[in-house]
Amino acid sequence: MKSLLLLIALGVLSVQADIQLDEEHAELIRNHREVCSKKSNVDPMLLEKARKGDFSDNENFRKHVFCVSQEIGYIDGSGKVLRDVLKLKTTEIFNDKADEIIEMCLSKNKDPIQLAIETMKCYYDKKGLVLL
């Protein structure tokens, strides 16, 4: 019984673990964060909370998430999803699992900001990927 509990606990921890980006991707994300923090004037505490899965409804936070999505390049200036870019970026991190992850996580919300938030939250919830 203890062995089973240990296996379950390890499984949960591995699912919760953040994806480790290589240095190139990590630097890009840091740059996106910096640019978007200046544009959105987001409270850094809201970003810290989001990195732990607590996504805020704060307007500046919402703008920040949308900005990061645009900086990554999978949402254009009009709020349209650029699926080919999303697939390319997702493949760089998740390799052959990209299509499955996109299908699971790409929100179908018509509001571009909410779409960005729902998509990014799913990447965090399902794969532990922190982009904020």
In round numbers, the mean pLDDT is 83
Query: What fraction of residues sit in β-strands?
Result: under 5%
Termini gap: 39 Å
The CATH top-level class label: Mainly Alpha
Based on CA atoms alone, the radius of gyration comes out at 15 Å
Counting DSSP E segments of at least 2 residues, the number of strands comes to 0
Q: How would you classify the helix and strand content by structural class?
A: mainly alpha
Order of helices and strands: HHHHHHH
CATH-defined architecture: Orthogonal Bundle
CATH superfamily: Pheromone/general odorant binding protein domain
| CATH topology tier name | Recoverin, domain 1
- Major sheet size, sense and barrel closure: none
Stretches where pLDDT is under 50 for at least 5 consecutive residues are 1-18
Number of helices: 7
Shape: globular
Domains (count): 1
Percentage of helical residues?
55-70%
InterPro entries: PBP/GOBP (IPR006170), PBP_GOBP_sf (IPR036728)
Protein name: Odorant-binding protein
Signal peptide: 1-17
GO molecular function: odorant binding
